[in-house]
Amino acid sequence: MEAHIAINRHRINVAMRLLPLSAINARDIGDTTPLLLAVSIKSYELVESMLRMPGLDVNAVSAGSLTAFVKCGRLGNLPLAQLLSRHRHIDINHDGDRNHQGYTGKACVHEAAANGSVHLIMFLIQSGALISTRDVNGWTPLHHGVANRRIAVIKLLLDNLSLPAIQTESLEGVTPLMLALELKYYEIARMIESKSPPLNHRVHMRLPPHQGAPLYGHGQYPARIQRQPMFPGQPWS
């Protein structure tokens, strides 16, 4: 616990002295490991030092889904992600503990897409990460990019995803294109449609006439679109 306290207080030198004397994977009252805390305070020096320590569980999960690498995605911290990726046991696709009640299924790429970390996603792609993986709600990184209006991230993902991956449906049956239309992000909808023709077996997407919709033609949303919940977990209308 002393090491956790030192890290939380940014006492890096003290923490580096304490860590070899304690369990490197010990958890505090918040179920957090020293490595996750070191990433949280963005201490490159401390993380680098810990990665050299024997017995380190670099993929340790906290609160059901959060690993040190996933935290890098949430923070949009490319240097720390690159540092962690050098560890021989790192799992860059780790999405948490499925048996934990706090499990979200979000990997680093989901978090990076949500906060618009283009360079981190580019690094993940180059490292062979799965960029079409789904979280507990069936959302892909592209869904998260659309929901948070991350234009640069969306473009990067569209350039690197297959057509089936672009058209992946969430557990509620919502594709990234449908989500963009529900949120009235018509610029994003056009970007996705240019890479992914509408699913003819489900519904033909069209923008409302007042938006001028040259890409989709005139007409209102089909009933299927109107009834879909906007975000995972919301009830159907």
From TrEMBL:
The keyword Repeat applies. Gene3D superfamilies: Ankyrin repeat-containing domain (1.25.40.20). ANK repeats lie at residues 104-136. It comes from Panagrellus redivivus (Microworm). Keywords: ANK repeat, Repeat. Coiled coil: none annotated. InterPro entries: Ankyrin_rpt, Ankyrin_rpt-contain_sf. This is ANK_REP_REGION domain-containing protein.
